[in-house]
Amino acid sequence: MNDYPGERLGLPASGPRSIARVGRRIGALAIDYFAATVIAIGFLGYDQFALPADAGWRQFAPMMVFAVLQILFIPTAGGSPGHRILGMRVVRFGGGWVGLWRPLVRTLLLVVVIPAVIWDADQRGLHDKLAGTVLIRS
């Protein structure tokens, strides 16, 4: 039995390099999706009040922008804007640079939602496990 999330991974119980907790994760998700929606409204003609039949591909514009933000910012800034604002970063399990494919796999699974809400005892989502990443506090 683990005393705290991240113990099996060799991470501290709290403070820097500890597993990012649920509240921070949800806050970062809200910040990122809000930013993606603003960008989609401003640059892609997204109209949140349009009926799906009228919206066409634009109904998916915020999700597409969200995915692009994740894929671009994780390997370059260590996390999405929401992660960084709330003091978190995505790191490769075992150390080293996350590379390019890990953020892509992680984001595709995050967009599907289900893998992101299935966690292990270390509060590590299935999307992180399959991508070989860990979301930690900075």
From TrEMBL:
Membrane disposition: Multi-pass membrane protein
Keywords, in A-Z order: Cell membrane, Membrane, Transmembrane, Transmembrane helix
Membrane-spanning parts: 26-45, 57-78
Compartment annotation: Cell membrane
Pfam families xrefs: RDD (PF06271)
Ranges in a coiled coil: none
Domain RDD: 20-132
PANTHER family assigned: PROLINE-RICH ANTIGEN HOMOLOG, PROLINE-RICH ANTIGEN HOMOLOG-RELATED
Protein name: RDD family protein
Lineage, broadest ranks: Bacteria, Bacillati, Actinomycetota, Actinomycetes, Micrococcales
